[in-house]
Structures are given as C-alpha cells and as structure tokens.
Amino acid sequence: MTTLPMPLLTCITGALLIVIGLWGFLSSWAITALIPLFIGAPLLGCGLMGRDGDLRRSFMHVAALLSLMGALGGVFALTSPERPPKKDKDWPGKVTTVKAATISKTLMTMLCSQYLILCIASFILARRTMREAQADAVMAKAIKESDEKKAAEEQSDSEGSTSTNTDDDQAKA
Questions:
Q1: Whether this model's pTM surpasses 0.70
Q2: CB atoms within 10 A of CB 56
C-alpha cells in the first residue's frame, strides 16, 4: 500500500483550510470566518518544518493537536444554535452570511477530522514499524552471536583434531 507522506498531507490540509478561511471571510466579512485560516496556517508551517530533520515527529504531533482543536472547535461551533437573522432590509445578505459560515465550519470540521484520523493511523503504523525494526535488530544480533559461537566451536574442533593427528603420527613412529 502506497501512502502520501504525512508532511505533504499536512501541507495540503493546511492550504485547504487557509483557502476555506479566506473564502469565508471574503463572503461574509466576519472576522470569525478566519478561524480555519488560523488553524491552517500553523498546520502548513508544521508540514513544511516536518519534512526533514530530527523534529519531524514533534511537528507531526503538534499538527495532530492542531487538527484536534480544529475538529472539536468546528463541532462545537456547528452544535451551538445559530440565531436566525432579523427580518429587515438586509435579510438576504445575512442569510448568505449564515450559509457561508455554516459551510466554512462544516468544511473545517471535516478536513480536521479526516486529517486527525490519518495522523492516528500514521502514528500507529510508525510505532509498528519501529517495533519490527527493533525486533529485526535483536534477531540479527542473536544470529550473529550464534554464528560466531559455531565458528569458534568449529575452529576449536579443527585444532583439536589436528593435534590428535599429530599425536597419532608420533605414536606410529
């Protein structure tokens, strides 16, 4: 099974959240519509910083935490009751604003939840791979020690048989 590396998925998710935040802000002009952007920008940064180096695991854990915050924040925002707009002359514009905000929250919740699930699966897979590598290293070490022990026994047996042959040759003479 081939998979995309997590830093690349982190960058993609972060970029999508930034686009959703900008779209929500430009369609409603509400500052709270930028919340997906505030989750997506650090995700994009974690993805870029976690591509190489020793801190990859740390950046991926921070990205998972950010996606958890985004998913929970989106769920709480979607479950809170929205006030319908008052019927006045701006009513159609306010309905569009509410729809854009709901779509923005829903997309953020979906993206963050899916990314969090992928993070958890990736962490489990990485742990399994690490354990298999450790088990392989232990097995290779045991095999090497066993081979060295056999070689030492064969060498001592061959030395013992040559000295016995020499003794037999001296006895015959």
A1: yes
A2: 16
